[in-house]
């Protein structure tokens, strides 16, 4: 990983870019060949190591478990459903067909966002 990051940093510098070490974090995921965490450095500065981080609304953890991510998605979907209660679910002027479409568009899409990338 260090070699790849060094090459990336060198290539970035050629274009006048610099890796922001305050915003860059390392997530270590052990496997059968790598059992211990290594220090990853950028320009002599050690990057902060984390157990999980959020990227594009999805939480990625070091153990690869998606239980926390599913719980967060369920909580967000529940909140979306609740926000529609007063204006939509109790409104008798909106048909069940329209309510179903709104449910699929807002609540289900909130729940299932990024599900194609979930590991199991």
Gap from first CA to last CA: 25 Å
Mean pLDDT across the residues is 87
Return Rg in Å: 21 Å
Low-pLDDT regions: none
Protein name: Reverse transcriptase domain-containing protein
Organism: Ridgeia piscesae (Tubeworm)
Distinctive features:
120 residues, alpha+beta, 2 domains, two-stranded parallel sheet, 4 helices, 6 strands, 43% helix, elongated
Explain what the structure shows:
This protein is of the alpha+beta class. The chain has two domains: 1-50, no CATH class; 54-120, no CATH class. The chain contains four helices and six strands. The protein has helices at 2-14, 67-83, 85-89, 96-112; strands spanning 25-27, 41-42, 45-46, 48-50, 52-55, 58-61. The strands form three sheets. It has a two-stranded parallel ribbon with strand order 1-4. Strands 2-3 form a two-stranded antiparallel ribbon. Helix 2 (67-83) packs antiparallel against helix 4 (96-112). The longest helix is centred in the middle third of the chain and has 17 residues, at 67-83. It is elongated and about 65 Å long. The two termini are 25 Å apart. The model has no long low-confidence stretch (mean pLDDT 87). This is Reverse transcriptase domain-containing protein.
Short description:
The mean pLDDT is 87. The protein has a two-stranded parallel ribbon with strand order 1-4. It has a two-stranded antiparallel sheet with strand order 2-3. It has 120 residues and is of the alpha+beta class.
């Amino acid at each position: 990983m260090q070699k790849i990051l060094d090459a990336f940093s060198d290539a970035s510098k050629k274009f006048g870019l610099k890796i922001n070490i305050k915003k860059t974090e390392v997530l270590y995921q052990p496997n059968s060949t790598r059992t211990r965490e290594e220090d990853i450095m950028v320009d002599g500065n050690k990057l902060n190591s984390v157990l999980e981080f959020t990227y594009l609304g999805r939480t990625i953890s070091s153990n690869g478990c998606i239980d926390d991510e599913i719980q967060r998605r369920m909580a967000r979907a529940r909140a979306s459903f609740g926000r529609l209660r007063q204006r939509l679910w109790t409104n008798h002027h909106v048909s069940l067909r329209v309510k179903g479409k709104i449910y699929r568009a807002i609540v289900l899409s909130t729940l299932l966002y990024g599900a194609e990338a979930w590991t199991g």
